[in-house]
């Protein structure tokens, strides 16, 4: 079995094989698909971004990487074009070289998660993965905004401040909405550590980042037809739902019981 590459060597192989600059999300997906890494942690995309950004910050022009656009990188010496940025009415936000997009207001989100994939209790497990194979994160204690759907229609919008996301959703399995929703989406503010734990809420947010964050939430939640892009601040932080293992265990038990009853 081939030895697992370090993050840096895996990044170098992906960028060397690409004819164009890549967003760190795409770099991460290629590292996983090519099997360069199997130990991914809970936030592999953020790890890739941090590896490249810290090299640029520490080594400057001696770094093997160049930043082409926000979150987009190439190997130094390659042929890449620089994007032209139009002037904005809102104040410019100076982005540090090692900053991660997941920490710009909305840190993580999940779209159209299934209600029946959760074992509902007062403290349910809301499990998500940044990429297939990454360490699952439990978003039960996440804070932010959530939406309930009946099919594809939004029937309720709520917030989690005094009570965390898992508790609020559990309450909706008992209240007047209990039979009316089958999926939910959520947008969280608590950052996610590579260990899979949720970090504390930041003390403050930069005002210039609020407008794009609000726009991004609305685009993702409402999916307006004329918007050709997804929310910029959310592109790197979507988590895929993972079914609660307890539900899988119950399915296996039910199958075995059914088989035994036929004997």
Structure description:
With 263 residues, this protein is of the alpha+beta class. The protein folds into two domains: 7-75, Arc Repressor Mutant, subunit A; 101-247, no CATH class. It is built from six helices and ten strands. The protein has helices at 7-17, 24-33, 44-59, 165-171, 207-222, 245-262, and strands at residues 22-23, 65-69, 72-75, 108-114, 127-129, 137-138, 144-150, 153-160, 183-188, 240-241. The strands form three sheets. Strands 4-9-7-8 form a four-stranded antiparallel β-sheet, with helices on one face. It has a three-stranded antiparallel β-sheet with strand order 1-3-2. α1 (7-17) packs across α2 (24-33) and α2 (24-33) crosses α3. The longest helix is centred in the C-terminal third of the chain and has 18 residues, at 245-262. The termini are far apart. Residues 81-86 and 93-103 have low confidence and may be disordered.
